[in-house]
């Protein structure tokens, strides 16, 4: 402990572990601490006995659901976009050698009281039961245009100035109906509310193309998920950090963060010892005086004995319920996994419902999603506060991550990783990874 580090990282959530791993690879001296004796922090993965204990649920978990070794339940589950930035981080850092992924079988959206498969190409749009015939043709033209922009087709690129044209105006140019805009904006571009409609459309076009390109990787959906759950993801980055000299300490209490007379961090005290550092990165639970509450998230983990109706018996899938479909301000997410990803024994499924709390009765808010699940063997409900940093990191040297949101994918988590990295180093992480990939590819070609 009595050493000086470039970075001290507090907490072993995925966000903190990714940042720790990347900074270790870059040659920084990293000390990573967590008050818990397990990886994952608030987003840990639990076996069935631990799940019952975590939620203070009575009953014999093993008698009802079998051996602990067959269960791996994520408290905050999220899918990875197959072509997304987190996957690129995994590939760049070689963390993939510690993990095995499998594609998710389906991507669905709730519309007019029913579950529908989300189309990802013009051809699928023509076959989709989400729209009437005339609307199918307009949707096909829109998706074809979006793909042409991604391919750099000159006519498509020059057709609109996407940096100025709002998403609402772009949709209007293709005469798309409100229902079509709803599923494209929320189930493909993965916007959490309708604020995006008033912003430049380039961001939405890029997000739709990310969805389309991710589907193209495996064909069933844009999502992948690791076998045995997300629990190994933080550990994989911890191994990466250790390979490059990082030091990990679990079950290590943090007494206080130490500052100099100007209020800038100079170390972290634990059990009477102080580890000195140039900066601290950590989750909000370590910085109660530097964060503010920004609402709440309700999550409901449900154990089922059957697939979700109208999902083609999918062993894994995502269902998004857009806000307008249930008269809300934010979307509701349903993530389904099962024995197919080795997180539960056959015939069990794990369905997790999540959304941002909007009323004084959060459990009533998730009822539209719970109705889609059918018979539920057991359910576990949590309501968690969301925190975001409100400090000036340039002055105090404390770089604080945000609480995981309600989305059932990692795209917003990647945004948070990039934000913290930018603030801590002054560099664009995605651009840096892309440049590093080009160098790697060039070196590989030279060897050939």
From TrEMBL:
Check the record and name the InterPro entries matching this protein: FAD/NAD-bd_sf (IPR036188), GDP_dissociation_inhibitor (IPR018203), RabGDI (IPR000806)
UniProt superkingdom: Eukaryota
A GO BP annotation? protein transport
* Pfam families hit by this protein: GDI
Alphabetically, the GO molecular function entries are: Rab GDP-dissociation inhibitor activity
Q: Which GO terms describe its cellular component?
A: cytoplasm
Q: Please report which protein family the annotation says this sequence is part of.
A: Belongs to the Rab GDI family.
List the protein's name: Rab GDP dissociation inhibitor
Native source organism of the sequence: Anaeramoeba ignava (Anaerobic marine amoeba)
């Amino acid at each position: 402990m009595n050493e000086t580090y470039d970075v001290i990282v507090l907490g072993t959530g995925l966000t903190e572990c990714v940042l720790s791993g990347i900074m270790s690879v870059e040659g920084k001296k990293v000390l990573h601490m967590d008050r818990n004796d397990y990886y994952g922090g608030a987003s840990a993965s639990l076996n069935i006995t631990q799940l019952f204990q975590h939620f203070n649920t009575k009953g014999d978990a093993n008698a009802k659901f079998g051996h602990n070794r067959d269960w791996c339940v994520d408290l905050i589950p999220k899918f990875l976009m197959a072509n997304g930035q987190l996957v690129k981080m995994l590939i760049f850092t070689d963390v993939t050698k510690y993990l095995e992924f499998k594609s998710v079988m389906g991507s669905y959206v709730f519309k007019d009281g029913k579950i529908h498969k989300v189309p990802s190409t013009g051809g699928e749009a023509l076959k989709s039961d989400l729209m009437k015939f005339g609307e199918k043709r307009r949707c096909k033209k829109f998706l074809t245009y979006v793909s042409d922009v991604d391919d750099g087709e000159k006519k498509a690129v020059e057709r609109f100035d996407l940096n100025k044209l709002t998403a609402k105006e772009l949709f209007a140019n293709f005469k798309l109906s409100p229902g079509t805009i709803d599923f494209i904006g929320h189930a493909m571009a993965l916007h959490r509310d309708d604020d995006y409609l008033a912003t430049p459309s380039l961001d939405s076009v890029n997000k739709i193309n990310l969805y389309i390109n991710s589907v193209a990787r495996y064909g069933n959906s844009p999502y992948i998920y690791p076998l045995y759950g997300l629990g190994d993801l933080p550990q994989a980055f911890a191994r990466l950090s250790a390979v490059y000299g990082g030091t990990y300490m679990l079950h290590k209490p943090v007494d206080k963060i130490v500052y100099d007379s100007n209020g800038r961090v100079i170390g972290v005290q634990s059990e009477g010892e102080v580890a000195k550092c140039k900066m601290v990165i950590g989750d909000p639970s370590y910085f109660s005086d530097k964060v503010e509450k920004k609402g709440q998230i309700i999550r409901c983990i449900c154990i089922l004995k059957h697939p979700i109706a109208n999902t083609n018996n999918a062993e894994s899938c995502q269902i998004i319920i857009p806000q307008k479909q249930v008269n809300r301000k934010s979307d509701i997410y349903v993530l389904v996994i099962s024995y197919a990803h080795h997180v539960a024994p056959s015939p069990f499924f794990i369905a997790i419902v999540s959304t941002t709390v909007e009323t004084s009765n959060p459990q009533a808010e998730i009822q539209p999603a719970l109705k889609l699940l059918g018979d539920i063997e057991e359910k576990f409900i949590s309501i968690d506060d969301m925190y975001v940093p409100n400090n000036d990191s340039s002055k105090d040297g404390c770089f604080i991550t945000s609480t995981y949101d309600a989305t059932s994918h990692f795209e917003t988590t990647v945004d948070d990783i990039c934000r913290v990295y930018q603030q801590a180093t002054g560099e664009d992480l995605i651009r840096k990874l892309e440049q590093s990939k080009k160098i790697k590819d060039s070196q590989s070609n030279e060897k050939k």
